[in-house]
Write a structure and sequence with these properties.
globular; three-stranded antiparallel beta sheet; single chain; 2 domains; mainly alpha
Length: 329
């Protein structure tokens, strides 16, 4: 069975996707401490640029990211995000070049993370609704030299759509991940099984039985001396690490409560009621549906002509200081 081909425009020229754009634009800005206090399932719903404390700039970057699923060019948007980030990096002539490269690299990570999350979230919802017809999912990497070994090891593997494996390893399951998953019919999986019959056990793609149990725990058998460690940050015990589970993005607080012991949930609820977003809502209010201000408009809208004010109408204008992304409680 031929591996599903990636469209030629998969990375640099994504197709307009209104729902993905709206999801990015709706992410609330959040401070570092409040973000760290979120449960792992909730972090992909919020927007944080580490080290950036100006909420106005963070909102501009969020708006730029949302423009990519709406049809904006990837490379152009990366440059615009780097321009926003560049104001917070070194302006020393000796390090300006390094700072620019760092800004572009960070812009790329932001684009991949939030853009791919948005696309994969909507795709996951479609695939989940169709799981009775397409009960298997296949993991696919881009297959180039930039793919990490663990992600390359997963390339082509097939697991049931109902497997907990997909809660931890649905792309993008690590920073900068460019992989994807596709849905398969039972007949397609039977074809792969038939092809696997001539392969060594460690090279087989349809993962079942004890091999599936190990996969769900974060280990892939690829030979007697090649046990690939696939554990995510959360599986390693780092609850503040990166986590993306598209299946949990729509869970309400009551459904989340059932996943945790009473002490852990009580600590989270206490922090959520104390921590505030820059727009004034508590994290708890946001999670329970309280509406914030509408997302900021496009970064560079066409301005409406405004008549010039009379001279000296505002002789002492007061500039509003930037918002502090980490509010004082």
């Amino acid at each position: 069975m031929a591996k599903p081909a990636l469209p030629s425009n998969f990375l640099l020229d994504p197709q307009p996707h209104k729902e993905a754009a709206e999801w990015i634009a709706s992410k609330p800005l959040i401070g570092r401490q409040a973000f760290d206090d979120l449960l792992p399932e909730l972090r992909a719903r919020a927007f944080l640029v580490t080290g950036l404390e100006d909420a106005n700039v963070a909102a501009e970057i969020r708006s730029l990211l949302a423009e990519v699923p709406a049809g904006a060019e990837w490379v152009k948007t990366r440059k615009e995000i780097a321009d926003q980030l560049g104001t917070f990096l070194s302006d020393d002539e000796d390090t300006a070049g390094d700072a620019r490269r760092a800004a572009l690299a960070r812009a790329e990570i932001l684009l991949r993370t939030h853009g791919f999350q948005a696309y994969q979230r909507t795709q996951h919802e479609v695939m989940s609704r169709q799981a009775d017809v397409f009960p298997f999912w296949q993991y696919l990497s881009l297959g180039d030299e930039k793919v990490r070994p663990a992600h390359q090891a997963l390339d082509g593997i097939v697991a049931p759509a109902s497997s907990p494996f997909w809660h931890d390893h649905s792309p993008p399951w690590q920073w900068g991940c460019r992989c994807r998953k596709v849905a398969l019919l039972p007949d397609e999986v039977d074809e792969i099984r038939a092809e696997d019959a001539s392969r060594l056990p460690e090279a087989q793609r349809v993962i079942e039985g004890t091999a599936l149990e190990r996969l769900e725990r974060g280990s892939l058998d690829r030979g007697p001396t090649n046990q690939v460690d696939l554990r995510t940050d959360v599986q390693r015990g780092n609850l503040r690490g990166y986590h993306f589970d598209p299946g949990s993005l729509a869970l309400d607080p009551e459904a989340l409560r059932d996943r945790y012991d009473p002490a852990t949930w009580a600590e989270f609820e206490r922090a959520a009621k104390a921590n505030k977003l820059p727009d004034g809502r508590t994290v708890w209010a946001w999670l329970n549906g309280a509406k914030g201000p509408p997302p900021n408009p496009p970064v560079n809208p066409v301005p409406k002509p405004v008549p010039s004010p009379p001279a000296n109408l505002f002789p002492n204008p007061v500039q509003n200081p930037p918002l502090n992304l980490v509010p004082k409680l």
